[in-house]
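User: Fold both of these, please.

Assistant: Here is the first one.
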Amino acid sequence: MPTPKSDWSERSLELSALLGRAGLGDRAAFATLYQRTSSHLLGVVMRINRDRAQAEDILQEVYVNVWRAAHSFDAAQSQPLTWLTSIARNRAIDSLRRAQAQPQLKPNVSSDDEEPDVYDTVASDAPGPLDLLSRASDARALADCMSTLSAQQRQSVALAFFDGLSHAEVADHMRQPLGTVKSWVRRALLALKSCLESAARHDAGAANG
């Protein structure tokens, strides 16, 4: 039987509130939720899939799912961290099933139109898209940085990380080759990373000035 909400810890109450706001489309709340729970959920994933690079990719998928399903969280059925852990565990198990069902092949990069996936080209310690969102505490900073991208880059990033589509689904939606879409997303993330870091330094300088 679920623990009555009146008996929840302060952390559970906070996470429940953040999920509620995220379910209404509040990206700042979602970014805070990511900061509060990502370390725990990465540990959950890595207990199932011990490859850290794969686990980090799975974690991004987990939070895409959380963003899309936050409105369905029911505090009467489970505590927020239990709900999040269940999503993480299921995604990690699904990833193992996919890996067992598919041959492990590495694509040959033969042209500019077929570039490696974004997570293969960005260093492992570089922030992922949700890290970028969490850094953009001011929504205007994110909007300003998005405006520096090309129209194709903005659309591909929005479809991939705000709408939760896979690269293949983005390519189909935009009617573009998969390699081209991967290239747009990779370059867009690198540009966003640089822009948001610059904005953070500027804000820090203004605060200290």
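And the second sequence with its predicted structure:
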Amino acid sequence: MKASKRIFQFTILIIIMFSVNIYSNPVAIHNINELLIDHQDSTNWKLEITVIDTGKYYLTSLTDTAYFKDSISVNYNEYIIITQDSLSSPFSINSLGDHITLYRSSDNRIDELIFGNVANSETPAPRPNQSISLIYVGYHHKFYFDNSPTLGNANDTLDASGFVNVYVTNQFGNSVENATVKYGIIWNHPGGVPNTDTTDSNGYFKFKDVSLLTKITVSKSDYESADTTILIEIDSTININLSITDTSSQSIDERFIAIAEEYDLNQNFPNPFNASTSFTFSIPKREYIEIAIFDVKGNKIQELFSGIHESGTYKIEWNSKFLSSGTYFYQLKTNNIIQSKKCVILK
């Protein structure tokens, strides 16, 4: 009968896990559901767990090991709160970072929570009065922070969210419209699916999510993508600026034109020009080269190419659509020479 009861309970738990809302806390599979720590007293903490087997358990941290005073008698769908009083010896949890592991008395590891400034940490350390709570997204789990702990009950995400403002610009600081923004926890893992939206005409996008580490990626056709990972703060707004490089503004025509016998940088045509122009350059041997644009003060404002290039004469197209009218210089630099030419943008 006991074996049949356990099989039934486990089956129900699996069904619950895949039927709940992604921001609720299904019982078990992961047995550590929530942790609240007193930042002033390392022995004053509350740990919420769920187990599916009756028996003796114990906990380990980076400094202590302590057995439960009593065996756990399992009741279906029960959230069990463990405190220092539940254990047979002192047990400290470092609020700045620790590695908590739950074991059966048979030394069978059940679950663990690694947080803060320790190796293999899953999440940063919580702020005072914040709990670390478990959340499921698809086939994955993650720990988030909650300003209103729900120890003894199913976790929720009330008082656990913040806003993120995302501003996307190109390499010249101009807004990028219709850039794709992907965000959400561990969506880059197998089976993970990101939340996806696009920036408006001002290169802006805003979203709200629970307080945890989240990855943000920005991309657009003809642009190099950019990404960052942030910790969303509860009841606050974080501003994120991501710059993506427009790769359509320049290209080197790799078609061979002629054998080059010397270094040469030709005048661009047309000149003056409105948005697009082109020029040719020659190098007599295979070597590292840099082609860049400078303003009249000598500041590099755009790099058109850098890397190893074969000998020959080549044509490069330059789209200056993000630059204002004025005088600029384009430069060919190698280990042997530096050549520059002046050009004028008129808009």
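The chain has a mean pLDDT of 84.
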